[in-house]
Amino acid sequence: MPVIKRIGVLTGGGDAPGLNAVIRAVVKSAHNQGLECVGLEDSFDGLIEPNRSRPLTPRDVTGILRIGGTILGTSNRGNPFAYPVATPEGKVDYSARVVEMFHALGLEALVVIGGDGTLAIAHKFFRLGIPLVGVPKTIDNDIVGTTSTFGFDTAVSFATDAIDRLHTTAQSHHRIMVAEVMGRYAGWIALHAGVGGGADVILIPEIPFDLEKAAAKISERDRWGARFSIVVVAEGATPVGGRVMITRAAQKGSVERLGGVGHFVGAELERLTGKETRVVVLGHLQRGGAPTSADRVLATRFGAKAVELVVNGQFGMMVANRPPDIVPVPFQDVVGRMKTVPLDCDLVTSARTLGVGFGD
Ligand code: F6P
Question: Which end of the chain is more exposed for a tag (fewer CB within 10 A), N or C?
Answer without folding.
Answer: N
